[in-house]
Design a protein that fits this description.
- The chain is mainly alpha-helical.
- Helix content is 69%, strand content 3%.
- The chain has a two-stranded antiparallel sheet with strand order 1-2.
- Strand 1 and strand 2 form a beta hairpin.
- The longest helix has 25 residues.
């Protein structure tokens, strides 16, 4: 399990799961005008973009690395903590909101990361059993 968490691909993919949607949000903002589209549309787009990026990265991870029992949950929680941490360090100060408001508006949505990671890990294990399953 520890080898899985210290693998550079897992860490880089976790960072990319936050960075790519962050960069994808730039066209929707103008420094002078702020958000250029309605807030509900922006939030929906960010969920779709973030989910698509996360799923793509998880597929890359789980079909490339040897699997261990519980790997999906461990990676999902690790990426959840990365995304929460970066949001708290970057987005919360940028938005001027407090942690409680951020958590209700955005933070809870990140709980999909461990759910997707566990599901994809199970699919990958069925496709290619790990040494622990033998």
């Amino acid at each position: 399990m520890r080898a899985l968490m210290t693998n550079w691909r897992v860490s880089v993919a976790g960072l990319l799961s936050w960075l790519i949607p962050f960069i994808a949000s730039f066209p929707f903002f103008d420094p002078a005008q702020g958000l250029l589209i309605p807030l509900p549309l922006f939030k929906s787009l960010m969920v779709v973009i973030g989910s698509g990026v996360g799923l793509t990265l998880l597929v890359w991870i789980f079909f490339r690395l040897p699997m261990v029992c519980g790997g999906g949950l461990a990676i999902g929680i690790y990426w959840l903590l990365i995304n929460w941490g970066l949001d708290i360090l970057v987005l919360v100060p940028m938005s001027g909101s407090d942690i409680g408001t951020w958590f209700i508006d955005t933070g809870l949505r990140y709980l999909t990361i461990p759910m997707m990671a566990v599901a994809l890990c199970l699919v990958a294990r069925r496709k290619r059993p790990s040494a622990a399953d033998s």
